[in-house]
Each structure stands twice: as C-alpha cells, then as structure tokens.
Amino acid sequence: MSFAAIFTIFLIVSPLVITSSSLTFTGNLPTAYEILAGYNFPIGILPKGVTGYKLDKTTGEFSAFLNGSCSISEEGSYQLEYKSTIRGYISDNRLESLSGVSVKVLFFWLNIVEVIRNEDELVFSVGVASANFTIDNFSECPQCGWGLNCNNVELVTKLRSNPFVSSF
C-alpha cells in the first residue's frame, strides 16, 4: 500500500477517532444506569424510562433523555420533577452543574444542582442548602407517573377504558 493511500485512510479515520470522546449510546452499548454505576452512583438517581444519553468522556459532560417530563412523589417524603433532558458533569462520586431535576421544598420547587457520594450517603445540593440520604434509598429506579406530570397518559387511558379494571 502506498504512502498516499495510507495517508488518505488516516485523514478519513482520524475525525472519527477525535469525535469518539463525545458519544451517544443506544442499542447494546452501556445504558445510562450502567454509566452512573461506573462513576460510583446508584442507578436510582435516574427514573425508569431513560431512552438514551450522551457522554463526553474528556469533559464529563453528561445528558440523559426521557420521553418527556415527569414527577415522582415519594409518599410522606419528597416530590421530584424530571425534565425531558437532564444535564450535568459527571466524575467519580460527583454530579455537578445539574439541570433538569427539581425537588419540592415546602411550597417551592428548587433545582438540584449537585449530587456528591460520600461513602454510603448521597448529598443533594440545591445551592444554598443540602440534604443527605443513605445510598440504600436509591437501589431501584423510581417510576415516573405517580406525580402530576405523568407522560404515561396512554397507559392511564387504556386502564380507565378497560371494563375489567376497577378502581375499587
């Protein structure tokens, strides 16, 4: 093979190598939940139903995608709201500059801007305040749809129109 042919192949392949640090995964590649676990986070900090994600391994920029926004209400505890895109920067034991996740505190919705894993606890920060939770609370992914902004309207409609399903 001539030098010109090798050089041409290099020019064609090199942009693919350079841009491979910014990846969007689907199919048989790792899931967003597996990526979280690789950075020492429990899978339960994301709700069920993540449809895809994007990760730039060089900067740690991370985005997770849902079919739409959703709310989760933990009975007697807290309310979370997820937007259709959750963004931030991920590194070992740290998610920072987060956007797309809010928590209801009293009567106000506050953005969760940082999550730090500190041994067996997760520290959630809304900027001026933070709260610690044991990691055991996040071993399973929460199910969207128990809150106000459920995107699972089709399933709810099917259940309501099914004469064999009763609400009693």
Could you explain the architecture of this structure?
There is one protein chain. The chain is built from three helices and ten strands. The chain has one domain (18-161): Roll (at5g01610, DUF538 DOMAIN). Helix content is 20%, strand content 37%. The termini are far apart. It has 168 residues and is an alpha+beta fold.
What's the CATH architecture name? Roll
Largest sheet: 10 strands, antiparallel
- Unreliable segments (pLDDT under 50, ≥5 consecutive)? 1-26, 146-168
Portion of residues in beta strands equals 35-45%
The CATH topology turns out to be at5g01610, DUF538 DOMAIN
Gross geometry: globular
C-alpha-based Rg, rounded: 20 Å
Question: How far is it from the N-terminal to the C-terminal residue, by CA?
Answer: 76 Å
Class of secondary structure makeup: alpha+beta
Into which percent range does the helicity of residues fall?
Answer: 10-25%
Mean pLDDT: 76
Number of H/I helices = 3
Got a strand count? Answer: 10
Secondary-structure element string: HEHEEEEEEEEEH
How many domains make up the 3D coordinates? 1
